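REQUEST ID: PR-0412
SUBMITTED BY: lab tech R.K.
PRIORITY: routine
TASK: structure prediction, single protein chain
INPUT:
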Amino acid sequence: MQNKTSSIPFMKMHGLGNDFVVIDARSGPRVDSALAIAMADRHRGIGFDQLAEVTDSPDGDLHLTFWNSDGSTSAACGNATRCIAAWDMANRGTDSLVITTDRGTLQARSAGDGLTSVNMGLPLLDWADVPLASEMDTLSLPIDGTPTATGMGNPHCTFFVDDITTIDLAVRGSAMEHHPLFPERTNVQFAQVIAPDHLRMRVWERGAGVTLASGSSSCATAVAAARRGLTGRNVRIDLDGGTLHIDWRDDGVWMTGPTAHVFDGAWHV
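STATUS: complete
OUTPUT:
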């Protein structure tokens, strides 16, 4: 006799190749660390950079919880937020959405031409808010390469380099993720200034490794570049997976880019 199995519906999405599994837990079981790790395995599971769990929100249209591929959680994931916003706005027949996260309440809207914008909130620039291990100027950290630290609901460390093609991202990103200056670990970016409104960036994500793109990392890099006087506050960022547009305004950091809903499936348990 066959064993009875149950299944968890999921969606696979990506923003510029930064890929996600999305589980709508409003009508099913909740996610835990063990499930996230199992689904993240690209050989024996589904594979993703992050998993996004959708639940009801008393203060918005929906709430998002983000899981890394190592089973840890993150308060922010910009590309997943944009992907889910595009999907949910299409379902609701609206062009705007209020999304709550552990980072805070985020505004999303359709930008037309298949693009979706999300306000990722104001950047956190004080050392205690990033957070860092001790008090210091977040603009130039006492680390070789003098990177800039920025909080976007998760910690970021941005290096500006002359030639991004010379950077061994896997080696340097892995080492910096666990630097003692970052008690909660950190996302790591290497960015090259192309023009006052144009950056090229590559990213190592905390808990995930090298990814083709990262929304919160793009926001943090744009903020860091503007603070250092390398660019203005409205920039194009070219990542390995494509291009995002970041606009640091008085009400927060707006991120705009394409989204993709790749397929739907069921995880058997």
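NOTES: Residues 78-92 form the longest helix (15 residues).
REVIEWED BY: pending
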